[in-house]
Design brief:
The complex is a heterodimer of chains A (about 500) and B (about 110). By secondary structure, chain A is α/β, with parallel strands linked by helices. Chain A has three domains: about 1-105, no CATH class; about 115-310, no CATH class; about 330-495, Rossmann fold, CATH 3.40.50.1220. Helix content of chain A is about 60%, strand content about 5%. In chain A, helix 18 (about 430) links the parallel strand 4 (about 415-420) and strand 5. In chain A, helix 1 runs antiparallel to helix 2 (about 15-25). The longest helix of chain A has 30 residues, at about 115-140. Chain A is elongated. Chain B is mainly α and about 110 residues long. Chain B folds into two domains: about 1-40, no CATH class; about 45-115. Chain B has five helices and no strands. Chain B starts with a helix and ends in a 7-residue tail after the last helix. The chains are: A alpha/beta (about 500), B mainly alpha (about 110). Chains A and B meet through helix 3, helix 4, helix 5, helix 6 and helix 10 of A and helix 2, helix 3, helix 4 and helix 5 of B.
Chain lengths: ~500, ~110
């Protein structure tokens, strides 16, 4: 135990001589290797325990703390690797990265979680890509050796997936942070040229694997593949609109994991392979769940051809129909005397940052003897689970957050369904209008409630440009205005009701 | 895992190594992916956002590769690439675990304080 402690102290002091002194016993190399492998195995097991913790909300925190310990063990194990000669830049990078990472996670508002997730995929992919490039450079240029085909395949995979994930995630970040227009950017022959470019990247990859790496040409093609990968990342994400972000983020999550795994293949490091595979599997599964919740085929998602459907918008004709707007007073009365209320939050709630006001209103209704539940659609918001995190931040107990399949049967018994900044996820056209572009998408049956109140900024159709028949339903009334100020007024009114 | 791999390798010393090692790695990859898939299907939709930031923090394990690149002094070029990679991966690891914890702390059942 003491030896381990001194070793850690030596590591912290960034003194390679001291580290070596601790491991300079006979057969030090074997011992060292054993120590490193044991650290990696421990880390792998702890990662899996950590993820298993996430299956129950009560055990999740503890699980993730175990995973964090696993990470620490893996890092310490790596630091005694004999290939590491100098600790200067490692320490600078660790301190700098810790500072930035901690600052982001402490001061970032919860509404920015989707952006942070997107940019973290970019960081992860950047690390994998740079390690791949350094590895390639080390073998071919520094050591002047020929890379064997298996390693080259792993490196190629790592660098190609890494580079397209870097720029793809940056584009997603730009859209979510509203640095870039959220609407799809489209042009002629977009799909054809994207597929073409992807084919070019694959061809370069194949060439790199089959051609011996000892020519100058090989390095040129290698860096060309990186550039093509970067371009593919930009081009596949710009045609994707904000509402499709849950799928894109999940997919990029999966790609970042695969890039990490490929790094593990190239370096012959099992913990990298395992952690990358866990990340890849998670992202893959989430993309399937998200695309199911949007009624998109998985092939459609994989090839990035989404966003295309939005071009054929507006099927349901709403001409001649009128919407009924409601005053704050009337809406408040309805809510104050309701016994069963189901709140349907959407991206509009996140934009208005109205989650705290929503909770206040729910508390108020409950204190008057009503019951409030929240209906959560899988793709409400900009990433999987977005609404849950926002409402949890506002102190809504998680047993009140109910998944779509569970709550849909309860709508007919609800006196009021209060829709806050959600649109497509409550559009009955998905159920009964085969001509609608969202036909077949599973929705929340808010239209089956006794009455519906929709908080909405204006009558502009939602993101997808699809008219929503719910708004024209006789039992639906609309309360126009910013969700936050509408809710504040509603709270004040319900108090006096 | 690797020691098992080594053991198997020794037993097959005579046979071709060229494909055995990558194949063992592939076993690890497939099995880990399978374990991940099985566990993650059981994660409730409630925790999908923390799940994503958690897996992101975990895949920050590429830090391990970055450390070797940054510290092995093969060339200035690889040291620099390694340094940037260490920084980027550390942002993910530290930021990822911290934000996951911050989120998970918010999920409470019934009574609020």
């Amino acid at each position: 135990m003491n030896v381990a402690l001194e070793l850690v102290q030596a590591l912290v002091a960034a003194d390679p001589a001291a580290v070596d002194a601790h491991l300079a016993a006979p057969a030090a190399d074997g011992l060292r290797q054993l120590f490193i492998e044991a650290a990696y195995l421990t880390a792998s097991v702890l990662f899996i325990f950590g993820l298993r913790g996430l299956t129950t909300p009560d055990k999740a925190r503890r699980g993730m703390q175990l995973a964090a310990v696993g990470m620490l063990v893996a890092v310490i194990g790596t630091l005694i690797d004999q290939r590491i000669i100098d600790y200067t830049w490692i320490m600078v990078g660790l301190v700098l990265g810790s500072g930035i990472g901690a600052a982001i996670s402490i001061w970032m508002p919860m509404t920015a979680v989707p952006q942070r997730t997107a940019i973290s995929h970019a960081f992860g992919a950047l690390a994998a890509t740079l390690v791949g490039i350094a590895h390639y450079d080390q073998i071919t240029r520094v050591q002047g050796e020929v890379i064997d085909q298996v390693t080259m395949a792993a490196l190629g995979f790592e660098v190609m997936f890494g580079s397209l994930t870097i720029t793809g995630s940056l584009m997603a970040f730009g859209k979510l942070q509203e640095l870039l227009p959220g609407a799809p950017i489209t042009y002629k022959f977009q799909n054809a040229s994207n597929i073409g470019l992807f084919v070019v990247a694959v061809l370069l990859f194949v060439w790199l694997v089959v051609t011996p790496s000892d020519t100058a040409m090989h390095a040129v093609v290698f860096y060309l593949m990186v550039l093509v990968g970067l371009a593919v990342g930009v081009l596949i994400v710009i045609p994707i609109g904000g509402a499709d972000m849950p799928v894109v983020i999940s997919l990029l999550n999966s790609y970042a994991g695969l890039a990490s795994s490929a790094t593990g293949f190239a370096l012959g490091n099992n913990v990298l392979i395992i952690a990358g595979a866990l990340d890849g599997a998670s992202g893959f599964l989430l993309s399937i769940l998200m695309s199911k919740a949007m009624n998109r085929s998985f092939a459609n998602v994989l090839f990035g051809a989404f966003g295309g459907t939005t071009a054929t918008a507006a099927a349901t004709s709403t001409e001649g129909l009128t919407v009924r707007s409601v005053s704050v007073e009337d809406a408040a009365t309805q809510l104050a005397y309701a016994r069963n209320v189901i709140i349907v939050p959407g991206y509009g709630m996140a934009v208005a940052q109205a989650q705290h006001q929503v909770r206040e209103l729910a508390d108020l209704i409950e204190s008057r003897g009503g019951e409030v539940k929240f209906a959560i659609h899988p793709v409400a918001g900009r990433m999987p689970g977005h609404m849950n995190v926002l409402l949890a931040e506002a102190d809504v107990a998680y047993d009140k957050l109910v998944d779509m399949d569970e709550i849909n049967g309860e709508f007919p018994r609800a006196d009021v369904a209060l829709v806050i900044g959600a649109n497509d996820v409550v559009n009955p056209a998905a159920r009964n209008d085969p001509a609608s572009p969202i036909y077949g998408m599973p929705i929340l049956n808010a239209d089956q409630a006794q009455s519906v109140i929709v908080l909405k900024r204006s009558m502009n159709p939602g993101f997808a440009g699809i008219e929503n028949a719910l708004f024209y339903d006789p039992k639906c009334s609309l309360l126009f205005g910013d969700a936050k100020s509408s809710l504040t007024k509603l709270v004040a009114e319900v108090k006096t009701a | 895992m690797n020691s098992l791999a080594n053991g198997l390798l020794l037993a097959e010393e005579a046979t071709s190594h060229a494909l055995t090692v990558p194949f063992l790695r592939f076993y690890v990859f497939v099995l880990a992916g399978f374990v991940g898939y099985q566990i993650i299907t059981k994660v409730p939709a409630l925790l999908h956002t923390p799940l994503m930031s958690a897996t992101n923090a975990i895949s920050g394990i590429s830090l391990v590769g970055s450390l070797v690149a940054a510290g092995s002094q093969h060339s200035t070029y690889s040291t620099w690439l390694g340094f940037i990679a260490v920084t980027a991966a550390t942002i993910n690891v530290v930021g990822g675990f911290m934000i996951t914890d911050r989120m998970l702390k918010m999920f409470k059942r019934h009574e609020r304080k």
